[in-house]
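Incident log, support desk, overnight shift.

02:14 A customer reports that sequence design results differ from what the structure should imply. Their input is reproduced verbatim below. On-call engineer (initials T.W.) acknowledged and began investigating.
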């Protein structure tokens, strides 16, 4: 039993998910990250309460904590979407890299190459993410009345050729370098691989300043 779970059971007599529910934390207002150790009872409870779930396979694998039952959550009708957690947890912040990991880790976990089909992974990454945030009426799919959020993927690179199944190509072959353009609410954020709303050089310069301060603080702490 994981330390966190053991501690909560010892203090409350309940496993974490039922305990959160007893506090009124499971609801349409909640989105919970990871849910690695959710059992059958936990999943049923979260689905009943319409709690959102952010599945972060890359971060979970790096921490060595385990793999969430994402396939069961998805098949049972949970509001589950793909996430990256933070840069310290999974390093890669692009959602495209999560598609491949999400699919393959569930196959390994269940010992079944037929589970977590490409179309299911893409659903989790799009409308599933919207449902996890309880925003499916506004985003997550291309429909009248919703925001025009569009990602254009280039298929010119060798890694994307030949394409027999567009879903499989996106999940197993595509990388962030294949993203040509991104629109949010109909506005270009990235157009033909050129950022339209952000200054990359300024962001990198800012990050360099911040990391230097962190390194300086760490060195000082070690000396103390």
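02:41 Re-run completed on a clean worker. Output:
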């Amino acid at each position: 039993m994981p330390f966190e779970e053991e501690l909560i059971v010892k203090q409350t007599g309940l496993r974490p998910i039922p305990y959160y529910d007893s506090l009124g934390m499971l609801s349409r207002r909640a989105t919970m990250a990871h849910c690695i150790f959710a059992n059958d009872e936990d999943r049923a409870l979260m689905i009943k309460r319409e709690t959102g779930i952010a599945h972060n396979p890359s971060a979970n694998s790096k921490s060595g904590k385990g793999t969430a039952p994402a396939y069961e959550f998805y098949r049972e009708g949970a509001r589950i979407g793909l996430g990256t957690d933070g840069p310290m947890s999974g390093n890669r912040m692009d959602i495209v890299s999560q598609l491949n990991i999400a699919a393959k880790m569930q196959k390994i976990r269940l010992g079944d190459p037929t589970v977590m089909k490409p179309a299911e992974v893409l659903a989790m990454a799009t409308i599933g993410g919207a449902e996890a945030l309880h925003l499916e009426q506004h985003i997550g799919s291309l429909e009248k009345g919703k925001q025009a959020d569009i990602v254009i993927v280039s298929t010119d690179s060798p890694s994307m050729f030949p394409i027999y199944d567009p879903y499989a190509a996106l999940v197993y072959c595509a990388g962030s370098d294949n993203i040509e353009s991104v629109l949010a609410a109909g506005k270009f954020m990235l157009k033909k691989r050129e950022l339209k709303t952000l200054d990359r050089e300024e962001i990198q310069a800012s990050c360099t300043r911040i990391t230097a301060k962190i390194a300086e603080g760490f060195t000082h702490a070690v000396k103390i």
